[in-house]
Each structure stands twice: as C-alpha cells, then as structure tokens.
Amino acid sequence: MEIISFLNLVFVNPLVEIFSYPIFFAEVVISGLLTGVMYSLVALGFVLIFKASGVFNFAQGAMVLFAALNLVGFIEQGFPIWLALLLTIIVMIILAFLIERFMLRHLINQDDIILFMATIGLTFLLQGFGETLWGSNVKPLDLGIPNQSFEVAGLLLNEFDLFAAGSGAILVGVLAVFFHYTRIGRALRAVADDHQAAMAVGIPLKTIWIIVWSVAGFVGLVAGIMWGAKSGVQFSLSLIALKALPVLILGGFTSVPGAIVGGLIIGVGEKIAEIYWGPLVGGAIENWFAYVLALAFLLFRPQGLFGERIIERV
Amino acid sequence: MLYRETGQFKISYAADQSVFPIAQDRWFVSLIIVVAIFVIPVLASEYLLQAVMIPLLIFSLAAIGLNLLVGYAGQLSLGTGGFMAVGAYMTYKLTTAFPDINIIIVFLLAGLIAAFVGLIFGIPSLRIKGFYLAVATLASQFFLLWMFNKVAWFYNYNSSGTITAPPREMFGVVITGPMASAETRYLVTLFIVIIFAFIAKNLVRGRLGRSWMAVRDMDIAAEIIGIRPFQTKLIAFAVSSFYCGLAGAMMVFLWLGSAETEAFSINESFNVLFMIIIGGLGSILGSFLGATFIVGLPIFLTNAPQLVGLSMPIDMQKHIEIMMFGSLIIFFLIVEPHGLARLWQILKEKLRLWPFPY
Amino acid sequence: MADFERETTSMAIPLLKRRLILIEELQLIDEVNCHDSLIGQKTLIIITKTTGRYFKMLRNLILMLLGAVIGITGVVATTPVVEADEQFIPMLVYRTGPYAPSGIPVANGFRDYYTMINNRDGGINGVKITFEECETEYNTKLGVECYEKLKNKGSTGASLVNPFSTGITYQLIPKASVDEVPILSMGYGRTAAADGRVFKWVFNFPTTYWSQASAFIRYVAQQEGGEKNLKGKKIAHVYHNSAYGKEANPTLQALSKKYGYELVLLAVDHPGQEQKATWLQIRRAKPDWVFMSGWGVMNQVAIKEAASIRYPMDHFVGNWWSGSDADVVPAAAGAKGYKSATFHSPTSDYPVHSDIIKHVYGGDMSKAKKNSFGEVLYNRTIVNAMFAVEAIRTAQAKYGNRALTGAEVRWGLENLNITENRLKEMGMEGFTKPVKVSCSDHETGGPIIIQQWDGSKWNIVSDWVSPIREVVRPMVEKAAAAYATENGIKPRSC
To answer: With contacts defined as CB-CB under 8 Å, which chain A residues touch C455?
Structure first.
C-alpha cells in the first residue's frame, strides 16, 4: 500500500497537477525559458573563451560583477548612460589586454587544469579590485528598462524578463553573424580549431585572444546588466557563474547554440522540478537538480549536446 | 654537496624499498616530526595552534585525499566539500547514538561511510572525463549539502541544523568539545595525519597507485594491458572520499567544535583544489606544502600590516589581501606550474652540487 | 616564441612539442652550444631565459619564505599591549564579502556609539572603551579566528562579543563558557539561549526569532480583525535555506496548529539570486500573508519578484534582517508598501543621534551620512552598543569603576535593567523599549513593531506587538534542555 501511495505521490500527482492547471504550467515553462536565457548569457562568455583559447575561464562570474560594478560606478559619478556603457566597454578591453599580457602569455602550452587554476586566481584579483575601486555597498542599476508586469491570456509576463530574453537573442544572433561572416570571426574559429595550425598560417594568437576576452567581457557586461537590475549590483553576482555551469556541461563547452539550448533546458527543467516535485522533498532543489539534469544528459553524450566529440587515441 | 647519496649502500631489499631511501631525507623528516610533536605544542601560542597548525594538518589530509583522486588517478573532482560533510555528519550521528565508542574509531567508521558515498558518486567517471567530470561532481557537492540541510535526522532534529561536537575522552583526556585544550587536539590531529599520510604514501608506491597513474596517463592503453579502469577509478573515488570524510570529521570535532553545512560549501572544495594544484599534483609532499600555503597565506596577509606598522582601514586591508592572494596564485602558476613539490625537488637537485658549481 | 609568431612558425610546432622544463633539467646548455644551426641558437636563448627565470624564482621563493617566517614569529610573539584602565570590546565585522551591504552600517554603528561615549562622557564612568575591528567576511571560520585573536586583548580581556552572524554565534557558544567571554547576540543566534539556566554566557535580548514569528502572527491577527479570523487563512514563509532561515519554522507550525491557519513553507537556496520558482509557487498558492526570513541578496530579489507578480506589498512582511535600506534599494518604487518587523524606531531624530553628530562627526551631517548614519541597521546597532555599554555600567556599579573582566560584564548583562527613565537620560526615549534581563530569561520577550517602506523611507505603522510567550517559552525551555543533555551541561537554578 505504501509503495503505491509513494509512487502515486511521485509520479501521478505532479502530472495530474500539471494537466489540471495548464495555464499555470505554461507560465512556469515561459518563466523557465526566460530564466534559461539569462543563464545562457553568462554561459556564453565561458563558451567564447573556451572555444578560442582552450581556457575554462572560471573568472567569468567575476568579470560579470566587475563589468556591472564599473557601469554603475561610472553612472554614479554622473556620466550619462551611453558614456558609462562606452567607458565600461573600454575598461573590459583594457582588462582583456592585461590578462593576455600578464597571464595567458606566460601560461602557453600548460595543462588545462593549470589554466583553470590561474583563472580562479584571476577571480580573486577581480573581486578584490572591483571592491577596492567602487566599494562593497549594493548599488541599484536602473537603465530605464521597463519593468511592468502585464497579463496575456491569463499568463503573467514581465516586460523586463522579455527584454532580457530579447537582448540575449539579439546578442547570440550578432555573435553568430560575427563568427561566420567576418574575417576576424573566421580567424577566431580557426584558433578554436587548432592553435598551432592557426599560428602556422599566420594568425596572430595574441590579438585573437585579446579580441575574444574583450567580447567575453562585453557579454559579461550584458549579463551583469540583466542580473544586476534584478538584485542590485553586489558581490553575489559573481556567484551566478555556478548556476551557469550546468548549462555549460549540458550544451557542451565549445558550442554557442549549445549554450542557448542548454540554458533553455536547464531553466525549464529547474523550474518544473522545483514547483511540482520540490514540495515533496521540502523545496530548494533547484541548485542540485540542474547539475543532476546536466549529468543525466552527459551520460548519454559525454561531451554535451552540441560539444565536440572527444576522440581518444592510444 | 649536502644532499649526495654517495656512500649509502642498501644491503637488504627492505632498506632498498624504504619510503625515504636517502639518509638526509630520513633525518630531515624525523626532525620535522620531532619538532612537531615536542616543540610546537610547548612554544606555540593558543592562537597559532588553533588558527594555523590544526587547520593546516586537517587540510593537508583533505588535500592528500583529493590528490589521490586528481593527481594520481586523474579524475578531476570538485565534490570535496560534500564528502567532508559526509564524514562530519556521520561522525556526529554515530557518536551521539553510541557515545561509548572511542571517537577515533568513530572517525574511521565515518570515513568508511564517506568512502561508500564517494564510490556511488564516482560512477559517472566511466563515461565522463575532464572538466565535464569536474562539473558533474558539483552535483554531488550540492546534493549532499542539500540533504544534510533538509533531512533533520542528520542533525538530531535540533532546531538550528548545526552539529556540535559533544565532549569525548580518550585515555582519560578530553579531546573533543570546548574543554579540550588546543595542545591535546593538535597532538591527536598530528598523529592521525602522520599515520594516514604514511598509508597514502605507501598506497601510491604500490600496485594500486601505479594502476591509478596508468589510468591517469592513458586510460585506453591501461585498459589494454589489463588494468580495469572502472574498478580503479571507483577505488580512487572511495579512498579519496575516505580521506576527505576523515578530514571533515576532524574539522568539526577537533577544530571548529560545531558546524552547519555552510562550512562545507563549494569554497572548501575550491580551497582544497587550490592546495593540490599549488602544492603539486601527484605528490604527497605537495599536499602538505599546498595546504601550508593556502592556510598560512591569508593569516600572514591579515597580520602582516600590523607587523610592519601599517594601519589601514580593515576593508581596504581585506581587499588588498584578496588581490594579493589571487596574484600570488597566478604568479606561482606562471613560475612553477608543477607546484611547490617541484620546487622542492629542484632545490634538492641544486643541493647535490651546492656550494660547488658542478 | 609567442612574441615572434610569424617568424618562428616554421620551428614553432616542433619546439612546442618539447617540454621546456625537461631541457632545463638535462643541463643541455653546453651541448646545445655546439650546434651551429639556427634552431640551436634560438633554443639556447630560450633555455638560458628559462634557467635565469628559475634562479630569479628561487630567490623570490626564499624572500617569501623569509617573509613567512617573520610573519609567523610575529604572530607567535604578539603580546597584548597592556592598556591601563581601558575596557576592550572586540568587533567582529564584515565590511567586505557577500553581506557587506548589511555589515557596513553595523560596523559603523558600533564604532560611532563607542566613540561618542568616549568623547561625550569620557568613557563609562571614566573608563575609556577601546575597540578593534576584525574582518570576518561573514565567514564562520574567519569569525572564529577573529575571536581567538581578540579574546585576550586589553588589560582584562574581551568584555563581550557581538558576532552579528548566527553561524559565528553557534560556533562561539561552546567557547564562551570556557573563555569566559559573554556573547550578546541581540535578536539573532541561538534562540534556545533565552533560557539562561542552560546558557549562562549567551544573551539574546530584547527578543528572538521565535518570539518575532509569534508576534508576526499576532500582528496578522490584529490586521485580520481578531485571532478567530486566522482560521482558514493561508500564510507563507519564504526563508533562506540555512539554520538562520529555518529558525521561525517550528514556531509558525506550532501556531498554525493552535489558530488553524494553513502554513506554506518555501525554502530559497543560497544565495537566492534567482527566485522565480518560489514566487510562482506563491502566485499559485495565493497566500494572504507572506513572512520572509531572508538575508543578503535574497531580500532584494524577493522584493523585486514580489512586486513583479503583483503581490500586495502591504501583506508582505520581512523579519528584522529583511528590512534594511539596502534591501529595498533595487526595487525602489516597486517595494513601496513592503513591511518589516523591527524593535526600534527607524528614524534618526532622537537626542542620541544629535549627540553622535556633534561628538563624532563635529556637526558634519554629510560625512555622517557617508558612514551609514540614519540607516535602519545603523540604528539597530546603536541599540546593541547601548546595551553593551549599559551592561558594563551596571557591572561597574557592583565591581567598581575600573576595567572589568568578561565574567563581571556577564553579571552586568544578566542584571541589566534599562528603565524608561534611563532611556530618557540617554536620549533614546521612544527609540526602543525598556529591558530587564534576569537569570532564567536572557531574552526578556520584548515586543516588536512593524515598519513600512513608503518609497523613500521607513515609517512605523503599528503599535508595539508582544510575542505569544505562552507558546514560545515552553519550546525554548525544551530546546535548551535538549542541548544541556547532549552536551552534559547541568542547568543552574535561579
């Protein structure tokens, strides 16, 4: 009897709930998709850098925070928004230059794990530096993005979330065009394919890395704006990288569409699990559920959905 | 010139296979152990023992555990914090349920349970490799911490969710709980760490260690010559989790006194990973050196400005400390990517010649 | 090589494949010199650069080790400077890290109040207060380390400690009785410490989490027109998934059985940056009231999400750690109507505030504002600092006007009696309520008030609501007894 009621509880009840309130379920799914796009924004930075330099840049979270801090810092100093944005982009380019000059150049040809570790050191550096420059208080970020909620066919949607999803989509589109149709984009793809071959045909590795890290910095800035507007710009923004990691492993480390698809899957999966199955076990299962979901996909495709197949030779 | 092994002949197989074949090594290690057992408890202040020496030893043990998994078996894992939590919580449950069993035995039992848990979470390692495995082990980290937070049975249903080390005795001396003195706890920790470091050193020199290293270097080739990769990897996870669980138990019972799941968060996992990378992957000595660096450096950086006479607002001081920590990590990785153990090896190589040029 | 990519491409690839470090160890400098080829020359440059680097690195390592030795000996050799007749109070603060927005006003509050007492009154009956800040980043391990470093400073050791973190408080509770340093965990920490017979060294007056939760239910009952109207209502508790967040749950559950309302518990995982799932569940459940035990970024995001799902903000009440200025900042206008519990006034127009401006900032209001003056958490810390100072003063009445030990300050805390008159003398009349601590009751079951954010500041919108002591006190005693049994503590009788 208890086994039946247990099975009932786990498998039947949540599904019954889903089907008896379809509008709410649609709301959950849409929320999940929108959140997923926000995760993908962060994951995109990881993917870009991993594609082009083979570095798993754990400092992406800190870069998101650093970019957002600089933006609000400049706005607080009184600069108009467009100028603050421009200045922040310049700061991120300078940062990319410094990272390449003082860190990447000295670590060419090292193991992946050493580079990973170096980016963790970079995380500390950026956190400390950002807080030194702009202070540790929470700063509101208000760029005038509309924030009203409105109802459509019984579903409650929020303008800001849609705006964030839209900018994410536009960003991905722009990056796709950049990678496929410009000379620099082709060079980036060549470097991602094979460093040594790219050097052999004369592609300057240094410059490509600076470009890639700047673009990742810009992506981080967009992510920082979207997340920072929700919670105010503060230290916890850098922790968002931990939420983007399952997106990365589900989509594959080397694939931009993978980051998007992975984000959507994780976003929706997380929300559905938390709302329908969460109450059974006491809630707050989002964090580990995302990882377990990604893990489940990995067991079937060990390199992620869209990642490069790892070919091992003896 | 100091380090030459000329004139040291081995006349038995046992002597040839000893852990420290060179006499200078043996003297040096014995000296360190004697100083650690007899000199430090007498001379060091309570603050030094409590804040530096005990965590250093505990994290060295955890670093040895993770080094066995990452450095020797090549399986990148970020779930260290979760396994330490398993050790700590199971120790708490066992000792509150059976208060009469010697606490050291309880530590070992909890370590075995942690090993079993590690075994289960190591199963994905057959299919998944590299960074993907690292992120997948984060699943174990988050799930275990969620479980210890949620399931009230683990903390005996108390309203705070915190586990507190009850006072336990051994040979008539209180070794856990607030009445235990720092010297007692330090000596107990020291003995446990010495014994288990010795066990680890012998593990990696033997057949098991060699099969781990084979799987790390080229697992397909290892499989071809007859090493079973699945079993080897699972045993690596189990042994590593045993060490991490033991370290976690010691962390709560011999150092902190009480803990909630926040003490085993992902920051701990990253900390232990730092230790083995800075110390040197694939080296037992490296685990100790890395732990010294990561535990000692923040304390040194916090106290340094006062020694130099500089007084800064403490938030500025903390920020600078964090930046220095990050830059030192990057500096070390640039200068010696193979870690402090490699530096030690190079030092010994130089000592063979010094003070002569060749 | 990386500097000369285009020129070196022809030999880059084979050289890339060799590990530079191997070359170094084999000491091939001499052999390579013999080769006359271009490759040999370039290899020589690389090798000598690497060797030179190694020596430089070795030198740096030695310097670092030297520095470390100095550091460690410095730490060992630090002896406390003996201050003649000064009361030392350690300050565990978090001005950096994830909770800095909450920690900064707290640190400033303590510093300003103690400085004011020193400047205005010349100390406590002539005994000046010295204090030292130690940065904990709200991290439990660092908090314990700070405590160990500071507990013996000053001529008589630390008088008392305010951890301002539930996690750090839990760690320090077992140590307090051994080190004889009382803990004043005002309104946070271990609620069971309200039973002073078991927790001799821990004080959490004027009120605790469980009392606060019960007072919240009483406030809801008042708003709904009486306790009988609670039956059938739905109350949600959104809480941080940690020991702190879960504190209120047992009380809310016990009261739900008593009054017949439905309790919905929703945990938010640390750090709470993403809460869509939680607030969608609230949207589905449509509770009449929402109570929040949040901390840090969870507060800001929760308020924003609540506004976004159009939950009636005046039915959304946060506990006193979810009701500070930093929490409503990102939501700004959307947070209008949000309420929170507190036990002091959020305004800064009391005589004690003008004293601070005068004696600490020399009348400079803008400088004071830069140092968190007037913020909710700043005011709360003023109350905390006041309790500490008055406890020392009470103890001095018994032991004499000199620097007191921790044990003597503990007596002062246990016999603290702040009357309405005394509040008036200190310039805090109406700022907070009188407090009388006793041996068995370290909580005093003080009342709370509800404040509401109107878009630009906090206003008091209720009378003082007292907790439901008949439900809370038995639970406290039960929890304290369990702790005593588990840790072999014999409760005192008083």
So the answer is: none
CB C134 within 8 A of CB C146: yes
Task: Give chain A's mean pLDDT.
Answer: 87
**Is the Cβ of A141 closer than 8 Å to some Cβ of chain C?**
yes
Q: What is the CATH topology of the domain spanning C86-207+347-487? A: Rossmann fold (3.40.50)
- Selected residues 204-263 of chain A with any CB under 8 Å from a CB in chain C: 204-206, 227, 229-232, 234-237, 239-240, 243
Assess if residue B170 is contained within a domain. yes
For residue B345, being part of any structural domain is answered with no
pLDDT at A230: 82
Question: Given B48, B166, B307, which is nearest C70 (Cβ)?
Answer: B307
Query: Could you write out the DSSP letters of every residue in C306-367?
Result: HHHTT--GGGEEE-TTS-SHHHHTTTGGGGTT-EEEESB-S---SHHHHHHHHHHHTT-HHH
Q: Does A119 touch chain C (CB under 8 A)?
A: no
Contacts of A152 (CB under 8 A, 6+ apart): none
Partners of A122 on chain B (C-beta within 8 Å) are: 326, 330
Residues of A in contact with B146 (CB under 8 A): 284-285, 287-288
Q: Where are the domains of chain C?
A: 2-77, 86-207+347-487, 210-342
Mean pLDDT of the residues in chain C: 82
In a domain, B89, yes or no: yes
Pick the more confident residue, A27 or B308: A27
Contact A216, A60 (CB under 8 A): yes
Q: How many CB pairs under 8 A join A and C?
A: 133
**DSSP notation for C86-152:** EEEEEEEE-SSSTTHHHHHHHHHHHHHHHHHIIIIISSBTTBEEEEEEEE-TT-HHHHHHHHHHHTT
Q: Who contacts B194 (Cβ-Cβ below 8 Å, separation ≥6)?
A: B33
What residues of A are in contact with residue C104 (Cβ under 8 Å)? 136-137
Question: Which of these ranges, A209-223, B198-212, C45-59, C428-442, has the smallest mean pLDDT?
Answer: C45-59
* Higher-confidence position of A247 and C41: A247
Domain C86-207+347-487 and domain C210-342 have a common topology: yes
Beta bridge partners of C290: C236, C316
Is residue B73 assigned to a domain?
yes
Provide CB contacts within 8 A for A275, sequence distance 6+: A28, C277, C280, C281, C284
Domain count, chain B: 1
Which chains does A contact via 3+ CB–CB distances below 8 A?
B, C
Residue C282 has pLDDT above 60, yes or no: yes
Q: Given the DSSP bridges, would you call strands C449-453 and C339-342 parallel, antiparallel or unpaired?
A: antiparallel
Q: Convert the pLDDT of each residue in B83-128 to its tens digit.
A: 999 999 999 999 989 988 999 999 999 999 999 999 999 998 888 8
pLDDT category at C7 given cuts 50, 70, 90 is low
pTM of the model: 0.87
A51 near C CB under 8 A: no
Q: Which CATH class is domain A21-130+157-300?
A: mainly alpha
A125 touches chain B (CB under 8 A): yes
Band of the pLDDT at C40, cuts 50, 70, 90?
very low
Structure tokens at C280: 């969608």
State whether A35 and C297 contact (CB < 8 Å).
no
Rounded to a whole number, what is the distance in Å from the CA of C376 to chain A's nearest CA? 15
**CATH code that applies to domain C210-342:** 3.40.50.2300
Query: Which structural domain, as residue segments, surrounds residue B55?
Result: 23-264
Q: With cut-offs at 50, 70 and 90, classify the pLDDT of residue C33.
A: very low
Bridge partner residues of B169 (DSSP): B174
Average pLDDT over residues C382-402: 91
Half-sphere exposure of A314 (CA within 13 A, CB side): 9
Domain ranges (residues) in chain A: 21-130+157-300
* Contact residues on chain C for B162, CB-CB shorter than 8 A: 170, 243
